[in-house]
Amino acid sequence: MTTLTLDYAQQLIHNSIALASQHGQSIAVAVVDDHGELLAFARMDNTAYHAGILAQNKAYTSARDRQPTANLAAWAQATGKDMGYWTDARFTGIQGGLPILKDNNVVGAIGISGLSEEEDAALAQIALDSLVKN
């Protein structure tokens, strides 16, 4: 895979929702290409509307910045800079956005929202790992 396919993006969405459902959780999940453009999105029933926007922004940030959104937050805290530094209102340092890598190259990103930051990030990683194993 040198580019992220719609099929792969939809599998990530499906796996994320299945994992959340197993634990009685509701989430929003977004998958974007390497430029941060939306490929697939779902917001489960009973998930807050703002979680949908945040999931998309987490994926966008991770794809554009080529790293987990948690790294961006840590950098901002360590340097005393705020998110306005990037002059992009969609950038967020909230955990739950992870890049999708192929041969150490970012081909896209996933963003999950609706749980705690730590749970969003963990679920995103589990969803990515589930496709690597298949």
What value does the Rg take, in angstroms?
14 Å
Strand count: 4
Q: What's the helix count?
A: 4
Beta percentage is 15-25%
> Which descriptor suits the 3D outline?
globular
Strand order of the largest sheet: 2-1-4-3
Structural class: alpha+beta
**Unreliable stretches:** none
Output mean pLDDT: 92
Q: Sketch the topology as an H/E string, one letter per element.
A: HEEHHEEH
Quaternary status: single chain
Amount of helix: 40-55%
Intertermini distance: 14 Å
User: How is the main sheet built?
Assistant: 4 strands, antiparallel
Question: What labels describe this entry?
Answer:
134 residues, 46% helix, alpha+beta, 4 helices, four-stranded antiparallel sheet
Please describe what this structure looks like:
It contains 4 helices and 4 strands. The protein is an alpha+beta fold and 134 residues long. A hairpin with a 2-residue loop joins strand 3 (97-102) and strand 4. Helix 1 (6-22) crosses helix 4. It is globular, with a radius of gyration of 14 Å. The model has no long low-confidence stretch (mean pLDDT 92).
Characterize this entry briefly.
This protein has helices at residues 6-22, 49-65, 69-79, 117-133; strands at 28-33, 38-43, 97-102, 105-113. The protein is an alpha+beta fold. α1 packs across α4 (117-133).
Structural topology:
Elements: H1 6-22, E1 28-33, E2 38-43, H2 49-65, H3 69-79, E3 97-102, E4 105-113, H4 117-133
Antiparallel strand pairs: 1-2, 1-4, 3-4
